Amino acid sequence: MSKKQPMKRLILVLSALFLGGAAAAQNMFAPVVTINGAVVTQYELDQRVAFLQVLRAPGDLEEAAEKALIDERIQSFAADRAGISVSKEELGEGLKEFAARANLEVEPFVAAIGQSGVAPETLRDFVEAGLRWRKFVRQQFGPKATVTEAEIDRELASQETVTGARVSLAEIILPATPDLIDQTRELIAEIHRVVRTSDQFAQAAARFSLSQSRENGGRIDALDINTLPPQLAEILLTMKPGEISDPVPVGEQALAIFQMRGLTELPPRPAPNLTVDYAQYAIPGGNTAEAQAEAQEIIGKLDACDDFYPIVRGVSEDRLTRVSKPLRQVPSNTAVTLAKLDPNETSIDTTAGGGQTLLITMLCSRTPELGENAREAARLAVFNDRLTSLANGYLEALKADAIIRHP
Q: Is 142 within 8 Å of 384 (Cβ atoms)?
């Protein structure tokens, strides 16, 4: 064999790599959809999907990402025509407000999402689009969304009682760490494909679920729909008995699927505007046998949330977090855990720190959320509902007139 042949092969391999890299770069910026001539690229779509994954959005993320980007392009056209812009200061405040939802400043939040491949520009464009649309909506529809005193009275009356439901569910909790997320999604797809009965779902839960409920075939006690995170409640209310949900983020690195076992309507009762008081105790080691054993030992000493304090004095006070806030402000993974608990009950189904820390969660109490400015809050609720309705109707009309094409 001549010396030229290995070199020739090497050149061919390198050429293929370079050409492949160039093709990938071109494909990355290929259009996936055009809206009135404006292009959404594959890169933008991939970035939005990654962003939704960071936000733990449920459902088909690619479909949701494309819809959101189409809506934002159309909203941008409307804002451009109205001369709406966002100042540097307004954008800074918007970024700060969004990062605060994760209890972070802007720079640590950008760094955190960057670890999942989300570029700072993706966050900036997302926040700026939302700010411009809100300014446009207030300018366009604010005068039409006035609220009368009679409407405020009706809103306050509607808040006094609420109807609801109790849902009977079975769950399967699966790992969503970066090294396992692909296998988990494949397993969920297979469960959707082959599981047809509650017994089959129970067998899958017993075999695969990380939750303690696996010992009961994934079945959990009936839950009041109003104690669940609103996003999850909306999903469950659309399901039929026996149906299995899309994956729902329920932990820092965990996904859940739920099987609807039954739904029972509840009679009208006082509205559950709830504030939850709960405690979380952190144990290093994640779901290791040692951490689980330590958790069980601690739980054996607990009758109420205050019982954590003598325990934490013997170790590090940083391990204990005591929180009291409106349920709607509680992170969704913790809210799902709390929904399963009565006061002074505990759970060890939640982890933190990328799965490296096991959390003992105890519900201390649920109490009605009492607002000091209930009338003003009611006026704002009616105003925002009306504004949202007008804005959504206008957006749908713009979409109907838009030219939307896929390559």
A: no
